[in-house]
Amino acid sequence: MNDNEIISLLYERSETALTEVQQKYSQSCIRIACNILGNESDAEECFNDALLRLWNTVPPKHPDSLFAYLSVITRNIAIDRYKYLSAEKRVGMTAVFEELENCIASPSVEVSNDALADAINGFLAEEDAFNRQLFLLRYYEANSVLIPHVFSA
User: Fold this and answer.
1) How far apart are CA 80 and CA 139, in angstroms?
2) DSSP of 36-56, one letter per residue?
3) Domains of the chain: total
4) In this predicted structure, what is the pLDDT of residue 91?
5) 93 lies in some domain
């Protein structure tokens, strides 16, 4: 089933939509959350929370890319969970945050999301496709520095 058909089912409030989303995107979204959290059961819980948020936001939202929309939801939930857990212990996303520590503004400097997005998009526009993919895998999906599936493609 394609994304437009799934979105139509969400508009109809058909629970079949959630089953289709789960079959189509659970593996990718759970991997993203697991890369951030370092724990598969927490990652699965984040994905389930993302399904609920998807159900509650479509409609009125009508995403152009269902996977992009769902992966952002999953990633944000995983980051929130990471922040909650990191108050008690250090988990997988710590290394990514430490790498970026010297590149991003201090908390006292306010930067709009639009300005940050423009800066990142400008940087990525100057990079070749391979480097863009590495950047996204590392800093969006929080993959480890050694990314074997990228090199086997």
Assistant:
1) 16
2) HHS-HHHHHHHHHHHHHHHHH
3) 2
4) 47
5) no
Residue 106: per-residue pLDDT: 57
Q: Which residues contact 38 (CB under 8 A, 6 or more apart)?
A: 91, 92
Q: Domain boundary residue among 88, 123, 138? A: 88
Element counts in the chain: helices (H) and strands (E)? 8, 0
Residue 42 lies in a domain: yes
Domain containing 118: what range? 104-153
Residue 142: name the closest of 87, 81, 59, 89 by CA.
Answer: 81
Residues 6+ apart with CB under 8 A from 33: 42, 43, 44, 46, 47, 74, 75, 77, 78, 81
Tell me 58's DSSP state.
Answer: T
**What's the Cα-to-Cα distance from 65 to each of 7, 41, 69, 98, 111, rounded to whole Å?**
10, 26, 6, 31, 27
Based on the fold, state whether residues 116 and 149 are members of the same structural domain. yes
Tens-place pLDDT, residues 61-120: 899 999 999 999 999 999 999 888 876 554 456 666 666 666 665 555 666 778 777 888
Would you state the structure tokens that stand for residue 112, as one six-digit string?
């709009």
